[in-house]
Amino acid sequence: MESLTLRASPSSTASPLLRLPGRRRAASVRVSASGAGEPDLSVTVNGLKMPNPFVIGSGPPGTNYTVMKRAFDEGWGGVIAKTVSLDAGKVINVTPRYARLRADPNGSTKSPIIGWQNIELISDRPLETMLNEFKQLKKEYPDRILIGSIMEEYNKAAWHELIERVEESGVDALEINFSCPHGMPERKMGAAVGQDCALLEEVSGWINEKATVPVWSKMTPNITDITQPSRIALKSGSEGIAAINTIMSVMGIDLKTLRPEPCVEGYSTPGGYSARAVHPIALAKVMQIARLIKEEFPEGRSLSAIGGVETGNDAAEFILLGADTVQVCTGVMMHGYGLVKKLCTELQDFMRMHDFTSIEDFRGASLPYFTTHTDLVQRQKEAIKQRKAIRMGLQSDKDWTGDGFVKETESMVSN
Ligand SMILES: Cc1cc2nc3c(=O)[nH]c(=O)nc-3n(C[C@H](O)[C@H](O)[C@H](O)COP(=O)(O)O)c2cc1C
């Protein structure tokens, strides 16, 4: 395996792959010509050029040729296909497999969906069928980025066979699903690997000794410290991290039947939570991984942020933390493939507001503003001293009152 230090600057315009004897160079791709004065949304990540940073996240929006073609036609920067494995015959889905949380506490169907749970497994379509569709897509869209998402059992030969076959289909990169929280861990797959650092190190080693295209390791948030498996995946040679996969959840209990949801023949199993409700959690995890990359991998690795993106502003937040690309899965299931146009317009509006002309102008700009709580206390002390204490919020817990409680809480909220 060649030296990792050579795979520098994931976002630089010069492809790092050009300098890597072991990794296949990404296909040259079409970059959207931005009009005069238009903020440029194009990105180059691990040598992969995309017209914008918006990528279809692995899941239903990347299940087959028809829907992936639609994504390319609508203008998505890239597509990550639904996760595939060698033997789809072992993948048996149930229905219903989704459940939704609405903003209204009484669940009014008029109120917006804020959370989404799924107990869907990886692709149940034969690998050969999926690979033929990847080939067809790359034939029709040679300039567009198609990423294969893969998962296998704890078996080196199986991983190597899967990587070889998926790479042969012409995909530009691989995303490794170390993170599916339901169903697959029962077979020592998905999150079972992402949650066990020793196992992850071994499996990541197998993957990176075999892969010849860039590898993104997709992390589970269902772990105390997401930087630990991320560090291992990067040290084992992965070019990038993708985060987050879904958060383990139980959507609710039907108070009439007393059965959990989604309910399959009277029973349920914990699933994966996604959509708007997970966005703040995803921001925190992405922030931690961005800091890890900055501090421990200064030669550069890529970061693909995922979780609850429905607006250009959601995406701007991830990029401000250091993300190179932004994935959307549930957002597409709710709003359709045309969502990408709104995402691009809103992201450009944000860029215009700050006179940013490119994504690199603001990528990671908010990361330096995270510090420890102890440091916040110190900074506040200094600020109060300097301003001769214009009273902001309460000085001590003893100052809270019953009558003014809501106002007092309000005085300490930042937005
Ligand atoms: C119905 C459904 C199926 C999913 N299937 C996969 C999958 O096969 N592989 C994978 O890596 N992630 C899968 N995910 C996780 C998403 O790619 C994504 O990480 C997660 O949903 C958070 O992003 P979102 O809020 O944009 O959906 C799935 C998510 C949903 C909702």
From TrEMBL:
Keyword Transferase assigned: no
GO biological process: beta-alanine biosynthetic process; thymine catabolic process; uracil catabolic process
One example GO MF annotation: uracil binding
InterPro entries: Aldolase_TIM (IPR013785), Dihydroorotate_DH_cat (IPR005720)
Span of domain Dihydroorotate dehydrogenase catalytic: 41-351
Oxidoreductase as UniProt keyword: yes
Pathway where this protein functions: Amino-acid biosynthesis; beta-alanine biosynthesis
Gene Ontology CC: cytoplasm
Organism classification: Eukaryota, Viridiplantae, Streptophyta, Embryophyta, Tracheophyta
Protein name per the record: dihydropyrimidine dehydrogenase (NADP(+))
Gene, per the UniProt record: LOC123128329
Enzyme kind, highest EC tier: oxidoreductase
EC number: 1.3.1.2
UniProt KW keywords: Oxidoreductase
Origin species: Triticum aestivum (Wheat)
